[in-house]
Amino acid sequence: MTDRLPHEKGFHISWDQIHRDSRALAWRLDGHGPDNGAWRAIVAVTRGGLAPAMIISRELDIRVVDTISVKSYDHQTRADAVVLKAPQADVMGADGAGVLIIDDLVDTGKTLELVRQLYPKAHFATVYAKPMGRDMVETFITEVSQDTWIFFPWDMALQYVEPYRAG
Ligand SMILES: O=P(O)(O)OC[C@H]1O[C@H](OP(=O)(O)OP(=O)(O)O)[C@H](O)[C@@H]1O
Ligand code: HPA
Ligand SMILES: [Mg+2]
């Protein structure tokens, strides 16, 4: 799989790292909601946004958590983004004001562009961002270059590697 990557570099994220970076995102968002600093709800962009959204909902004590399912990638090839499942209308209100939309990363920005068309007043936040999509989010933690493919822990498994210097 890796040898078919069109990307120059790989950035491999462990569970520990995504936990730390998601916590950092939670702390950055804390106190910036419209209701005395509080956020009304979290909406995770499934599937990648689910893990960061869980961690952020715990840190910020947000109990209303919903999902939006956007399908935009067929493995590592881009395809048109479509909404497969929308969040509850009463959670989003008219325009998403006071709602945190959480995803693991923004790459080209196509996924969040579609979500923003639906909920223009929501606050968009991702753990990682690439330059092309960076302006689609209000808040992110770490930027990586456009030619980097981010590997998340839920897509990986521990495996044997040959020693650097062969015996
Ligand atoms: O900014 P973009 O170029 O749109 O890319 C970013 C999106 O792509 C990935 O999701 P994907 O569609 O692969 O689905 P998944 O979350 O279910 O893995 C990632 O989790 C983001 O949601
Ligand atoms: O860099 C990436 N890693 C994982 N999923 C992705 N979806 C778009 N870009 C990426
Ligand atoms: Mg995703």
From TrEMBL:
Pathway: Purine metabolism; XMP biosynthesis via salvage pathway; XMP from xanthine: step 1/1; Purine metabolism; GMP biosynthesis via salvage pathway; GMP from guanine: step 1/1. Xanthine binds at D107, I150. It is a peripheral membrane protein. It catalyses: IMP + diphosphate = hypoxanthine + 5-phospho-alpha-D-ribose 1-diphosphate; GMP + diphosphate = guanine + 5-phospho-alpha-D-ribose 1-diphosphate; XMP + diphosphate = xanthine + 5-phospho-alpha-D-ribose 1-diphosphate. It holds the Pfam family Pribosyltran. Belongs to the purine/pyrimidine phosphoribosyltransferase family. XGPT subfamily. This is Xanthine-guanine phosphoribosyltransferase. The gene is gpt.
